[in-house]
Structure formats: C-alpha cells, structure tokens
Amino acid sequence: PSFRKHLGLLEKKKDYKLRADDYRKKQKYLRDLRKKALEKNPDEFYYKMTRVKLQDGVHVIKETKEEVTPEQLKLMRTQDVKYVEMKRVAEAKKIERLKSELHLLDFQGKQQKKHVFFFDTKKEVEQFDIATHLRTAPELVDRVFNRPTIETLQKEKVKGVNNQTRLKQIAKERQKQYNCLTQRIEREKKLFVIAQKIQTRKDLLDKTQKVKVKKETVNSPAIYKFESRRKR
C-alpha cells in the first residue's frame, strides 16, 4: 500500500513467526523468573550454600582448588599406567643424558657430590688451602671439569674458541640445551604425578575399607589409608 511504502517490503510470514516465537519465549522466561523470586523461601537449603558466603550483602562463590587439570584428565582417561610410566622412564633417561652432556652437577645450582678431605690434626685443617692441595689456580677451584693444574697451564697453550661470534653461538646453543632440559624435567614430574593418580584410582576399585588422609591436588594424588588384612 502507498501509505506504508516508506517502510519497505512486508515481512514474510515465516520470519514474523520466528520473531514472535522468540519474543514469547523470552517473555515466558521472565515471568517464570519473577514467579520463582516471589515464591522463594529464604530459609530453604540448597547445596550451593556450602560454596557461597555473604560479603557486604553480596554472595561470593568460594574458589575451589583445582584437583585435576584437563591435560591430566585426558591422559588418565585414554592411557594406561604402564604407558605413562614407560614415557616417564624415557624422559628420565633423556634428562640424565642431557645432564652428562652439559656437565651439570645440579640444575638448581647445588652440588650433588662432595669432595671430602681427611686430616690427622686440627693444625692441618687450619692451614689447609684447597687450591694448593689440588695444585691449580684459585679461580678454577669451583670447577668439577676442565680444571688443569698449574704445571699444565704453564706448559700448554690456551686452547679454545677466541672468536666472539663463535662464543656467542656456543652460549646460545648451551642455553637452548638448558631450556630443553628444564622442559623435560617438568614433563617427567607431570608424568610421575599422572602415573600416581592412575594407580590410586585403580587401588580404589578394591572393596577394602579405606579412609582418605589427604585430598588430591594438581601436583599430588590423593592419599588413602586402607584397612590392613591378613593374606592367607
């Protein structure tokens, strides 16, 4: 009609029905919410109350500690404990190989091994000088590898890389190996935790009476105390 021409084309019936149904659905949902709010019993218990506390008139949900990460859950559901343990052992062997290549005593900077010297008298202990005893320079005492003696330093020429570009390249490669070692150590720890959690779940299938001693966390499995039974 000419009197509504400025409004454009008429809406199709199916489009109007979709829009009307959506509008009625939303209005019904609002009515139900108003009715639920009016008929709500303030003294009624529901389970969410155990996780919610009131602060300044506002309900705040207590954050629960994450027990299992999605990555751990996926691996525990799809893989067996033997497979996880096999991967963990493989990672541990690669870590040991990398440590031997890097001449690493301890990744956190603490020595795993100690060099013990024995003396007969206290006077020898007081006069003891480790550099003199090892016959090396004081600057090289802290080294556990490539620690030449003073005689060797006097006889032999200094061998190694003198080019600064090559030194930077070697340092970059070494840092790359250290980063790889860090990642493998973290992966080995995660696999160890997952293997423990899978084994704990398998142990829980036993019908022996048990009591939970410690809850499960992201970095550790749950700890249970099982009733002791005498085996025949």
Automatic annotation (TrEMBL):
Asked whether the UniProt record includes Flavoprotein among its keywords, one would answer no
Provide the alphabetized UniProt keywords: Nucleus, rRNA processing
InterPro entries per the UniProt record, alphabetical: SSU_processome_Utp11
Tell me where it resides: Nucleus, Nucleolus
Q: What is its main location?
A: nucleus
Pfam family membership, one? Utp11
Report one GO cellular component: small-subunit processome
One GO BP annotation of this record: rRNA processing
Q: What does the similarity note say?
A: Belongs to the UTP11 family.
Q: What is this protein called?
A: Probable U3 small nucleolar RNA-associated protein 11
